[in-house]
Structures are given as structure tokens and as C-alpha cells.
């Protein structure tokens, strides 16, 4: 089950953070079709956001076709994201974790690592030439 975290300093609205975390869990195979999302009450208790914020996040996910609300039963995953095999994801996660440890030992902080990853993902130069 997903354990939501809300970073109030991120500048991203809490409902979008919750939605992003569900999407990430779907992409990583941590949530599968049929899985039940935490109840609104549980999310409120663990994350400190109000119920309307959770409802908005769940409604956005429902509009995207990723979850479905079942009256009196909860909110369930309807669809998955991502297509990589779980074994491939596990292998890549381990390699990436090793890379992050190496980056930190080289003096990079999380924001530096984030900037580097975003640059690579956006097709930025990887040879330092610009």
C-alpha cells in the first residue's frame, strides 16, 4: 500500500503530490489493478492534509482512468502504468541506488542529483560541452 508524503515546501499543491505518488507507484509496480488505495481518513491521519485535498487527488486519478471509487468500499486501482518487467525494475533500481551513493560520495546533494537527472532526461548535453 502507498504511504503518502506531502512536502509543504515543494511549491507543488498537495493534491498533485498525492496523485504523483500514486502514478509513481503504478509505474514501479508497487500498485496493481485491484489494489485498494488508503482511505481518505487514513491519508488525512498520516499526511496531515485535509480530506478535501485527498478527495481532489483521488478524483483527478479517477478522471484519468487510473482508479475507481466504489461506494462504501473505497478507491481501487483500475489501470496500471509502465511496461517494464518487475525484475528489470529491481535491477535498474539497484544500479541507480549505487549511482546515487557514488554521486553523494562525490559531494553532490539531492538537489544536484535531481538537476543532473532532469538534465539527462531532457536530453541535455552529457559531455559537458553544452
Automatic annotation (TrEMBL):
Its keywords, alphabetically, are:
DNA-binding, Transcription, Transcription regulation
Domain (HTH gntR-type): residue spans on this chain: 12-80
Q: Which InterPro entries match?
A: Tscrpt_reg_HTH_GntR, WH-like_DNA-bd_sf, WH_DNA-bd_sf
One Gene Ontology MF term: DNA-binding transcription factor activity
Record flagged with keyword Signal = no
Q: What SMART domains does the annotation carry?
A: HTH_GNTR
SUPFAM superfamilies on file:
Winged helix' DNA-binding domain
Q: Does the keyword DNA-binding apply?
A: yes
Instruction: Report the protein name in the record.
Output: GntR family transcriptional regulator
Amino acid at each position: 500500500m502507498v504511504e503518502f508524503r506531502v512536502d509543504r515546501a515543494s511549491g507543488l499543491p498537495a493534491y498533485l503530490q498525492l496523485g504523483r505518488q500514486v502514478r509513481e507507484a503504478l509505474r514501479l509496480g508497487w500498485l496493481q489493478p485491484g489494489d485498494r488505495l488508503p482511505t481518505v481518513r487514513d491519508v488525512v491521519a498520516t499526511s496531515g492534509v485535509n480530506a478535501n485535498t485527498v478527495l481532489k487527488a483521488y478524483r483527478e486519478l479517477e478522471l484519468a482512468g487510473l482508479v475507481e471509487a466504489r461506494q462504501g468500499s473505497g478507491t481501487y486501482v483500475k489501470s496500471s502504468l509502465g511496461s517494464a518487467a518487475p525484475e528489470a525494475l529491481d535491477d535498474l533500481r539497484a544500479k541507480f541506488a549505487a549511482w546515487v551513493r557514488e554521486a553523494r560520495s562525490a559531494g553532490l546533494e539531492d538537489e544536484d542529483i535531481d538537476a543532473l537527472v532532469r538534465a539527462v532526461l531532457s536530453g541535455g548535453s552529457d559531455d559537458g560541452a553544452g
